[in-house]
Hints:
CATH topology of the largest domain: D-Maltodextrin-Binding Protein, domain 2
Structural class: alpha/beta
Radius of gyration: 26 Å
Strand order of the largest sheet: 2-1-3-10-4-11
Largest sheet: 6 strands, mixed
Order of helices and strands: HHHEHEHEHEEHEHEHEHEEHHEH
Amino acid sequence: xxxxxxxxxxxxxxxxxxxxxxxxxxxxxLLAGSVILPASLLPGMTAAQEAWPSRxxxxxxxxxxGGVVDLVTRAVTDRLTTVFKQPFVxxxxxxxxxxxxxxxxxxxxxxxxxxxxxxxxxxTQPLLSSSTRFKTSDFVGVGLIGAPPNLFVVSPSVPVKTxxxxxxxxxxxxxxxxxxxxGVGTSNHLGQELFFSSTGLQLNNVRYPGxxxxxxxxxxxxxxxxxxxxxxxxxxxxxxxxxxxxxxxPKRWSELPDVPTIGEAGFASAMFLPWxxxxxxxxxxxPIIRRLSDEVLAALGTPEVIGRLDKLGxxxxxxxxxxxDALLRSETERWAMVIRERNxxxxx
Length: 348
């Protein structure tokens, strides 16, 4: 730090504290103090920044404990706990399509001690409802983790073998084909609406409280078409209760190597991934974001984390803080278009 002349106000404070000092002594003491001033007190820096993390870091998961978002998060935060030698504590706060936990992080202090597991809902909820009390811009990316891909499936009673054949089959039967919907605004729902927008399909929407409840009706043929998380659909596909036509992913899945990607099936523009990654409040200091981002990327290269995510059917899609920020912007544009074109509105 270079030497500099003390300000008049600083001289006044020092004189008030030490009235016995002469003006020259006051000046020398103030200059000496400025030379040894700790970095933590420099403008734009705080002791908390310098020492981060000096206490546990809370990671809010805005979905239920034990679900795929929770488990994906733990696979990474367990590694961060080891690296930073401070606990990264999972705080599951489900409810209102992820809004409850997400709003809590949007209001949290931007000090690096509260993070959020972001998902497409972080982008789509503000687009679906004007009453949402957070904006995507309230957050910045820390590190993109991965995405559990989805399978486009049909009931075995539907006489098609490919996704293109299904499109032709459905167009020849207007008003006769049902599609399962696990919730308005969920990534599965918006993903299939993106597909319908690309193909011009109009199917009968059948609402369900979640994906597991859709499976019996898909298997029996009461509902003919659906989009399911790959890991959830896998046992039913293997048993022949469902037929997989394509996987929404940039590459094929080793568990079902004969199932083409949606791009290979001829509908590349309909590819979507329900990504997960760590976010922080928007004003979190960049040095903290950078440290976290580097360690998240490093964690995704370790055999332990790779193995845990693979068991969850999650394709690792690592991305830096800056890459995650770019994804948030592009996803906002994409889903705003789909929601507008398909006239989708939140029911909450």
